Amino acid sequence: METQFFIRIGLAALLGGAIGMERGYRAKEAGFRTHFLVALGAALFMILSAHGFKGVLVSENHRLDVSRIAAQVVSGIGFIGAGTIIFQRQVVHGLTTAAGLWVTAAIGMAAGAGMYALATFTTVLVLIGLEALNSLLPRIGHRNITLTLTAADRSQLREVLSQLKSDGVAIANFALSEQTRRLTETSPSTRCYVLKMEIKTPRSKYSEHILHFITGIDGVEVESIE
Length: 226
What we know:
- By secondary structure, the protein is of the alpha+beta class.
- It has helices at residues 2-25, 32-51, 68-83, 95-112, 116-130, 154-166, 203-215, and strands at residues 86-88, 91-93, 142-151, 170-181, 190-202, 221-225.
- Helix content is 53%, strand content 20%.
């Protein structure tokens, strides 16, 4: 029976490592080692939950629920997943990583329960969802972008806003400020206008069109894009 346990833990670690390698290749927060350990630990907890308390004597008034360990794995993995989620500048990062850890724990539990085919099939589906669709998803849907532009005249920035609206780009909010800058310590100071805005744009337009027309407007410079 112990040989079966070794196989279950080994398979869980192998499947979790496969997902972790994909995440590491994408330079995500949780990579190979994290997914490897999550799957391995979940499999071990599942084995303990199902087989670790056989022969334990309990009183007549107390019923031993061996599923409680497995149930705690489901809720406990949420703490690790929550640590990978970051909310920054109105954009949420790390949700896919957190979901990957969650499903990796489920795969480890399936392997720990001896459901080899189910664990393997789920791993294949996860890899398809993470990697195979990765080339398709960037071409569809929308993307939230924070743009910071500078110009010597307000009219140039108005032209940018007008062009974005005519292209169907949704402007969530924007802030215009005036700054004084010097190229060097001895050069005279010059005034410029800084426009910071958050936009929601189709991904295809972002990659093919928006930056092209912004840099094509005389006097407008892109300070940052996130």
